[in-house]
Amino acid sequence: MTAQNEPADKGPEIDPANATPASGDTAASADPLLDLQAQLAAAQAKATEHYDQMLRTRAEAENVRRRAQEDVSKAHKFGIESFAESLVPVKDSLEAALAQQDQTLEVMRAGVESTLKQLSSAFERNRLIEIAPAAGEKFDPHQHQAISSVPSDQPANTVVQTLQKGYLISDRVLRPALVMVSAGQG
After folding, report:
1. What pTM value is reported for the model?
2. DSSP secondary-structure letter at 186?
């Protein structure tokens, strides 16, 4: 037979006398296995390294979460500390005024005014802002609470009278101002 009838890919020719490949390259058949074992060992080392990194990252994330929770807890617990420090002198002044036995009305009034100044100063230092709309000011539903609507010479939806002041802490309404609102020409 000719070479045309033989399969195209027979593999390496084997010398029947010593049953080895004709090329004499025995290391070539063992290299793929050694290469695969080396690749496997490298991949396992890399996987172990990545696993360790993941564990460290997870532990760090847990530590950050725990620290953040502690910070929030401390902020809730001690957030009022500055405001409380501002109010202690006000309390001291009120107690001192009550401890005085024989006071005239004028002296008591002066003491109350002084104490009110201390309180106003404490509010200002802690960004507690008064909402006290003047008559004729436009009604703001975000800062005012209308108690009633009354006929008035003022334009509709304007403040006629403030019944109780409101307060803001920074930009957040702590208590809206209680107002009477104009219903328009009556």
Report:
1. 0.58
2. -
